[in-house]
Design a protein that fits this description.
With about 775 residues, the chain is of the alpha+beta class. It is about 20% helix and about 25% strand. It has 15 helices and 41 strands. The strands form 13 sheets. An 8-stranded mixed beta sheet has the order 18-27-21-24-28-38-32-35, with no helix packed on it. A 5-stranded mixed beta sheet has the order 11-10-9-13-14. Strands 5-6-7-8 form a 4-stranded antiparallel beta sheet. Strand 3 and strand 4 form a beta hairpin. Helix 12 crosses helix 15. The protein is globular and about 85 Å long. It starts with a strand and ends with a helix.
């Protein structure tokens, strides 16, 4: 009995729970999975070209024996990566999978022969990413017209079978690379075939994937994951190189550029390319097997007729699992949000069930990296043990749907936003998209927007929404106040970074934006192999003046003068904030480092004793949380706030771009930063600019403190020793966040008098 595929309902994709039938039909294409007319047991995979034509991939099950080759060791999980983490917590590192206990598909074993009848891919042209010049419509059509058939004297010496998934971030990253490899080895008798075995991927989804990534080789839908079972495939993307004798010669990853937690500038190992070069040159494959990272294939499961040991038969998607997901996952895994797929529909969730369970069991989902739960941080992500057990029982029972009457309502959200209500003001960063090139380094981009504020405004909440999440590593929106206005802090409004969610400010608190201010978007782009267009926007909630009791602004603990030695595994960098408001409270902390960041702590000193406020023992560049304190700290009790950041520049850090380098401050990912952004709120009636320097209740004379500040400032930043500091002399972070506040006459140069005035304001 096959599981029938029914049409989407209101944009949702999925099977009608509980429906079965002997002749499965996909209503979207009116196609059936039918037995092959060829001798022996067989099945077909329906494939659709972008142009709309349909062909069948026919796979004939053979009787060839399989070897007893051992599976080999599996490497442990590694960290989660730049773009991959934003979207990726469900990308998993290689591991043994319980439902694959055979030796299927391993080097030396044989797989069933199969034949791909003519499927015309979408004609494409050469791309900037380096596609071969022969990727023309005629060349693509010629390749597509050739049948893929395993026999003793075929024209194709080797076939690369690529298991893909339309929503898997790694399968998306590697699509262009597979295209390039197919072009590079076509003349050597190597043919590529794509297979999608995910139950949650419809024909329409696969067609869109092929179109979006301009795949020049055929891709088919593997109903009931029969092809994946025959090959023993587990993840996407996973590739198999098979020779004319149906023997697997290579199995594993494409290369090592992308892994969970890692996005290297280039690949150190070209595993698939090396294997193909060795094979077409008549040499044995030196490394015939590698472990592919990526998403688990969403297999069809058989619903248990009665519970097995340790499972609960009453656990269903409708009654319990949907509620667990609504509580812990749907915040990000819903349409238009950061999650790479939605977890609101049964068929989608069932297809991702194994991956969900694996990441929950490993503690990677829900993402949270600080010590302490909701008793320490109001926004802590924590899934209780009983909710984890519900997921385990459900998967063990075969992911049953249950009674539709048990389904809960989806959480109420504002479409496209994580704000509590629709924004009062939406501003795009510019009037046309910014074009992000497919490769290379993109310097930080700055876009200035005039919000048209003719009087002071209070911002009670804000959220940045990237136009192209796959290439926006982070974005910051901050205020550029007009000359002469009273303004505190660094001008921070909000930011988009991996893993960070927007929370409303405390009741009665808001950020003040002076009349006439401009808003500045700071954009950090990371190319992903395909040209992208980005038009990022910010949504703003405005408060009423009479309702605002506290002004919120951001101060920073920052060190820009560090140097991390080569191969150092525990290099500490510290910074302090000694000048604090006389009243108010600290309510949130946002730490920031790059890929060498290992751990970070923030502590508060009171009467000579330190109190630990934040401890992130395993800092993850890809999940840069805002940590909202459950109990805000009164600033009147603090003498100092200290940040301690630890960096790992050793070979043991898999995300390390180059452990041989001396590493200093810089904007780009291979450089480093050491910052703790500190969100404070102060009563509006507090005198602006009045801070106090605490040193065991002794305040030095202001003039002496100002002159000491001036001397230190000039020593650090006056590189040409002319007695002034030009704009290009201090680090970029100060150029962005501090220079304008010092430069009163806006001439691009800080004089001693301007530095003294800024020091008096701070002291």
């Amino acid at each position: 009995m096959e599981h029938a595929c029914f049409p989407n309902n209101g944009g949702r994709k999925g099977h009608l729970p509980g429906q079965t039938g002997a002749r499965p039909i996909c209503s979207r294409s009116r196609q059936r999975i039918v037995p092959s007319a060829a001798a022996g047991c067989a099945w077909k995979i329906h494939a659709r070209a972008i142009g709309g034509s349909h062909r069948d991939i026919v796979l004939h099950r053979g009787d060839a024996p399989r070897s007893d080759m051992p599976r080999g060791d599996r490497s442990p999980a590694v960290h989660v990566s730049i773009w991959l983490a934003v979207v990726v917590p469900l990308l998993v590192a290689p591991s043994a999978v319980a439902n694959d206990s055979s030796n299927r598909g391993f080097p030396g074993s044989q797989v069933a022969p199969f034949k791909l009848q003519a499927v015309k891919p979408q004609p494409v042209t050469s791309r900037d990413s380096g596609a071969a010049a022969d990727r023309s419509p005629d060349a693509a059509a010629d390749r597509a017209s050739e049948a893929v058939e395993f026999r003793q004297t075929p024209s194709d010496l080797f076939t690369v079978v690529c298991f893909l998934g339309v929503e898997c971030p790694l399968a998306r990253l590697y699509a262009a690379r597979l295209n390039d490899l197919a072009d590079a080895f076509a003349a050597d008798g190597v043919r590529f075939i794509g297979v999608d075995s995910n139950r949650q991927d419809s024909l329409a989804d696969i067609q869109a994937y092929v179109r979006d990534h301009q795949l020049a080789f055929p891709v088919g839908k593997d109903y009931q994951n029969k092809v994946a079972d025959d090959f023993g495939a587990q993840r996407t993307p996973e590739v198999f190189v098979v020779d004319v004798a149906r023997t697997v010669r290579y199995r594993g990853r494409i290369d090592d550029q992308y892994e969970p937690g890692i996005a290297r500038p280039t690949a150190n190992r070209q595993d698939l390319r090396d294997a193909l070069e060795q094979l077409v040159n008549g040499r044995p494959v030196q490394v015939p097997q590698t472990d592919p990272p990526g998403c688990l294939i969403g297999r069809v499961k058989k619903v248990a007729q009665r519970p097995s040991a340790g499972t609960t038969s009453s656990v269903t998607f409708a009654k319990q699992v949907s509620r667990v997901l609504n509580t812990h996952c749907v915040e990000c895994h819903r349409a238009g949000e950061i999650g790479p797929f939605a977890l609101t529909d049964y068929d989608e969730v069932a297809g991702w069930a194994d991956t969900i369970l694996e990441t929950v069991n490993d503690g990677r989902m829900p993402p949270w990296h600080a010590r302490g739960g909701q008793d320490t941080f109001v926004n802590a992500r924590h899934m209780p043990a009983e909710d984890k057990q519900i997921l385990r029982d459900w998967v063990a029972a075969g992911v049953p749907f249950g009674d539709p009457e048990d389904l809960p309502e989806l959480p109420q959200t504002v479409a496209g936003w994580q704000l509590p209500r629709a924004p009062d003001l939406v501003l795009e960063m510019r009037d046309k998209p910014f074009v992000v090139p497919p490769t290379g380094t993109v310097e930080y981009q700055y876009f200035v927007v005039d919000p048209g504020f003719v009087e002071d405004q209070w911002i009670t909440g804000a959220q940045i929404v990237p136009g192209s999440r796959s290439v926006v590593h982070h974005a910051i929106c901050f205020v550029r106040p007009p000359d002469g206005s009273q303004f505190r802090g660094i001008g921070w409004i909000t930011a988009y970074v991996p893993g960070q969610r927007s929370l409303p400010l405390p009741s009665g608190a808001a950020r003040r934006v002076p009349a006439g201010s401009k808003l500045v978007f700071q954009m950090h782009y990371t190319p992903n192999g395909r040209e992208q267009q980005d038009l990022t926007k910010v949504g703003i909630l405005l408060g009423k003046d009479e309702e605002i009791t506290h002004e919120v602004y951001t101060v920073v603990a920052i060190d820009q003068e560090f140097e991390i030695p080569p191969h150092a595994s525990d290099h500490e960098v510290t910074a302090t904030v000694d000048s604090l408001p006389a009243s108010g409270q600290l309510f949130a902390i946002v730490p920031h480092m790059h890929v060498r960041g290992k751990s970070i702590k923030v502590a508060a000193r009171n009467k000579g004793r330190d109190r630990l406020l934040l401890d992130v023992p395993r800092y993850d560049f890809n999940w840069q949380h805002s940590y909202y304190l459950a109990e805000p700290v009164p600033l009147s009790t603090l003498e100092q706030i200290k940040m301690t950041a630890t960096f790992d520049n050793s070979e043991n850090n898999p995300a390390n771009p180059d452990p041989t380098q001396h590493v200093t401050w810089g904007d780009q990912t291979w450089q480093e930063m050491a910052i703790a952004f500190l969100a404070v709120s102060e009563p509006r009636d507090a005198a602006h600019g009045r801070s106090r320097q605490r040193n065991h209740d002794k305040t030095p004379p202001q003039d002496a403190a100002v002159e000491a500040f001036l001397a230190e400032f000039l020593e650090r930043f006056d590189l040409d020793q002319d007695g002034n500091v030009d704009r290009d002399e201090p680090p970029r972070s100060f150029q962005r966040f501090g220079f304008r506040q010092f430069d009163r006459d806006r001439d691009g140069r800080l004089t001693p008098d301007e530095i003294r005035a800024a020091a008096r304001k701070q002291l």
